Amino acid sequence: MSDELMVAPSFTVCGAGLAGTLAALYLARQGNRVTLYERLPDMRTHSVPRGRSINLALSRRGLHALEALGLAPVIHPLTIPMRGRMIHSLQGELTFQPYGRTPEETIFSISRHQLNCALLDAAAHWPNLEIHFQSRCVGLNLSSMTLEIEDTRTRTVRQVSARTVVGADGAFSAIRQALQRTDRYDYAQTFLPHGYKELTIPALPGGQHALEKNYLHIWPRQDFMLIALPNLDGSFTCTLFLAYEGAESFASLTDEDAIRRFFDRHFPDVTPLMPTLVEDFQHNPTGSMVTIRCFPWQYAGRVVLIGDAAHAVVPFYGQGMNASFEDCFVLDECLRRHNGDTSAAFLDYQQQRKVNTDALAELAYENYLEMRAKVASPWFLMRRRLEYALSNLLGDRFLPLYTMVSFTRIPYAEARARAARQDRWLDAALATLALLVLLALLWWLWPAGR
């Protein structure tokens, strides 16, 4: 064994985003020597390029992973509770759809930047955790366990030995690409035909929110939608989800007049609240949305994938970050259960998480269809009220799908299967009720029956 490898850290984490930093914290808490590489400058002291969504929804799974590290007191002040969806119709009518069965069942809006900074601050307190910024993982030699680290300022690449690598470097992970070159590696990526663009509703002159702050606001318009999440400074971060191509698409909104006509036609109640609408639309990037499935997530007990590197999902269930944080918690549990035996721990982690993140990918896509079209349907609203009524009556014996996903730690696959069974029971009950009503009506109308 080389002298360089002898002094290599116990774990090398590639990517100091949300999942990578939390994973590094868990590994450091176990007493491991951890090195964390991040391609961007330190976001606590430098402005970073605007890329992925800057607002996130934190729910039970993510909170649990933070609480296990004692981080809840630091994170909670950065959040705004959201009790449900506020649906805005084209006519300006508002419809409230609660998220949970009780007021305590809420999700929390939080800034990606503020959350990441808080995690980096926590990491700075661990003497056995070293962070290298502006250092991008561009490759991994699996046979020698040598990482290629690029200095993003000089574009020079150096070789770094590693014992165990955690790939937390996002949907287009360089670490996963190394695994993809191994024999019989499964990989698939699917992009949505829709993209997203972030816009802003600024705070009112007094610093108040222009809309009620304790809701996720949604403007569903069948083939596209606008959503808005509250920020602590009184502003809202809005996201327009729209097709890339077509009559009404990002491709068709190429000038100021087209942008204003589109928003005045489809979102007339919100346009007056967005003084920088055109500037935001023209200058903010259009983001793509991808689902990634791959297998295996680990290699020989020496490499493991977490977060988007393993299972990128579209954002419509608000579970991408929560699932990634749950990865970190489960990986920590597996390493403890197997006394640091990474081969056994990584296989255990993979077995637990793969089936559940595959289920989440399906749930997220289904919610994509629901949010843009179904939430405004009277039938959808009636069924949702019936589900919550049954849940209040039957307790934990009947839990709505959203409740299981967002307010419990029931595995995603189990929640999806259980919800499918409940849907079949509910469909059968509604069909029986409809038949009884029809028979009663026929009996009442039929002369011989009176």
From TrEMBL:
Instruction: Describe which pathway this protein belongs to, using the record's wording.
Output: Cofactor biosynthesis; NAD(+) biosynthesis; quinolinate from L-kynurenine: step 1/3
List, separated by semicolons, the cofactors it needs: FAD
Q: Which GO terms describe its biological process?
A: anthranilate metabolic process; kynurenine metabolic process; L-tryptophan catabolic process; NAD+ biosynthetic process; quinolinate biosynthetic process
FAD-binding domain location, by residue?
A: 13-354
* MF-aspect GO terms: FAD binding; kynurenine 3-monooxygenase activity
Q: What is its EC number?
A: 1.14.13.9
Keywords attached to this Swiss-Prot or TrEMBL record, sorted alphabetically, are: FAD, Flavoprotein, Membrane, Monooxygenase, NADP, Oxidoreductase, Pyridine nucleotide biosynthesis, Transmembrane, Transmembrane helix
Name the residues that span the membrane. Answer: 6-28, 425-446
Question: What InterPro entries does the annotation carry?
Answer: FAD-bd, FAD/NAD-bd_sf, Kynurenine_monooxygenase
- Reactions catalysed according to its record: L-kynurenine + NADPH + O2 + H(+) = 3-hydroxy-L-kynurenine + NADP(+) + H2O
Purpose: Catalyzes the hydroxylation of L-kynurenine (L-Kyn) to form 3-hydroxy-L-kynurenine (L-3OHKyn). Required for synthesis of quinolinic acid.
Please state which protein family the record places this protein in. Answer: Belongs to the aromatic-ring hydroxylase family. KMO subfamily.
Provide the protein name: Kynurenine 3-monooxygenase
UniProt organism field: Chloracidobacterium thermophilum (strain B)
- Give the classification, highest ranks: Bacteria, Pseudomonadati, Acidobacteriota, Terriglobia, Terriglobales
